[in-house]
Every structure is written in C-alpha cells, then in structure tokens.
Specification:
elongated; four-stranded parallel sheet; Ribosomal Protein L13p, Chain: A
Length: 149
C-alpha cells in the first residue's frame, strides 16, 4: 500500500487580512426585528465568504431614518426597555413608544445588541454602528454601499 503525501497547507486568517467595508441601511418602513437581524450579520462579518467566528471580521454600518422604523403588533403599547442601575430596586423601565419619540437610536441599538452573541466582541461590534434619525449622515466620504432590506 502506497502512502500519499499531501503538500496542501492550511491557511489561517489573521486580523491584518480583514478589509472592512461601509454599508448603509435606510430604516424607513422596515420591521425592527428584521433590520436588527440583518445589521447584526453585517456587524459580525457573516456576509463575507471568509468569515471566521474567532476573529473580528465585521463591517461598519450606518442606519438612517431611525425614527421611521416599523414596530409591528402592539409593541408600541406594551414593550418596555429595561436596565439595572446597580442599586437596590434599581430596575428602570422605559416605554418604547416614548423612546421612539425622544431617542429612536436607543431602541434600534437595544434590538441589535440582543441579536449579537454574548461574547467579549459585542462592544467592538457595536462600536462600528452609526445611527442617525435623518436621511443624511457625515460618512459620505467612505462611500457606503446602500443595502435594501
């Protein structure tokens, strides 16, 4: 029996090989959950064929028209966003309907945060997320690719 010698070498990706692109989403009329799921994939880098789960392969994402995102069902009436302050009885709840009027970026960020994995890279993924309530943004020099969700 002959023994075959394989000379194929396995190549490993490193963080130097990552090219980060800029993508722009328009949130007008898109459901909050669908938008958050798609944006989370781009932030993690799962849309590239070279995706490796142990490296930060994510891209930069810009979301415009954040106030025009669609909340389905009765989320406007009953959904609360809550956080704990660290003090006894420090659980703070805010209604989504009030947040959509005052700070719609917080609602979208909370939804995307829930879609990302609970690892040490979650904050680095979110650091590449830019949310604007208007249709214009200051990142035109990066020439972002517009994604229709």
């Amino acid at each position: 029996m002959k023994r075959r010698v394989m000379n194929n070498k396995t190549t490993w990706k490193s963080s130097k090989d990552v090219t980060r692109n800029w993508y722009e989403f328009d949130a007008t009329g898109i459901s909050l959950g669908r938008l958050a799921g798609k944006v989370a994939k781009f932030l993690m880098g799962k849309t590239t064929p070279e995706y490796v789960p142990n490296l930060d392969m994510g891209h930069f994402v810009i979301i415009t028209n954040a106030g025009a995102v669609k909340l389905t069902g009765q989320k406007q009436l009953y959904l609360n966003i809550q956080h704990y302050t660290g003090y006894p009885s420090g659980l703070k709840k805010e209604k989504v309907s009030l947040l959509m009027e005052n700070n719609p970026a917080k609602v979208i960020t909370t939804a995307i945060r829930g879609m990302l994995p609970d690892t040490k890279m979650k904050d680095t993924f979110l650091s590449r997320l830019y949310i604007y309530t208007e249709a214009t943004h200051p990142h035109e020099a990066q020439k972002p690719t517009k994604i229709t969700a």
